[in-house]
Design brief:
With about 170 residues, this protein is mostly helical. It has helices at about 70-95, 100-120, 120-165; strands spanning about 35-40, 40-45. It has three helices and two strands; from the N terminus they run ββααα. It has a two-stranded antiparallel ribbon. Helix 1 runs antiparallel to helix 2 (about 100-120). The longest helix is centred in the last third of the chain and has 47 residues, at about 120-165. Keywords: Activator, Coiled coil, Nucleus, Transcription, Transcription regulation. Pfam families: Med7. Component of the Mediator complex.
């Protein structure tokens, strides 16, 4: 019985056998997926829109609207989370059978915290990109300065060499 380390290539590899001589001989790639698609049994969408908490079936605990003070709301939710955890500890000690409601409240607070943090992702991406570009500019300016210094050093050495040759 013969075995192979790797499986044979898929049959469509023959479509690309003349690609190096004639790149147009290969078929065009499929168009990009738009809208919703299924992957591993779950539905996904190609749009990068953060769904609202209501769309996810979660009660929103912070103020609505475009002018949300993220720092204030995150601190408020963090305090609320700490309070709920302490209440859960008390309930687990005194009435262990009634913990489910507190766990659900903690879950709601966590989902609100995650939603607030995820809504800051575009700002974080912009800030990271700006930082990376500023570092690149700084490195390039430093490289230019290094080249200028090396050029001046080379000119100085050349002038010294010419002066030495002229003196003899």
């Amino acid at each position: 019985m013969a075995t192979a380390t790797y499986p044979p290539p898929p049959p469509f590899y023959r479509l690309y056998k003349d690609y190096l001589q004639d790149p147009k001989s290969a078929p065009e790639p499929p168009p990009p997926i738009e809208g919703t698609y299924v992957c591993f049994g779950s539905n996904y969408t190609t749009s990068d829109v953060l769904p609202t908490l209501e769309e996810q079936g979660v009660r929103q605990l912070y103020s609505k609207g475009p002018n949300v003070d993220f720092k204030k709301e995150l601190r408020s939710l963090n305090g609320e989370l700490q309070l709920h955890v302490l209440e859960l500890a008390d309930i687990l000690i005194e009435r262990p059978s009634q913990y489910a409601r507190r766990v659900e409240e903690i879950s709601t607070v966590f989902k609100n915290l995650h939603h607030l943090l995820n809504s800051l992702r575009p700002h974080q991406a912009r800030a990271t990109l700006i930082h990376i570009l500023e570092l690149q500019i700084q490195r390039r300016k430093q490289a230019v300065e290094d080249i200028k210094r090396s050029r001046e050093e080379a000119r100085r050495l050349l002038n010294e060499s010419l002066a030495t040759l002229d003196g003899h």
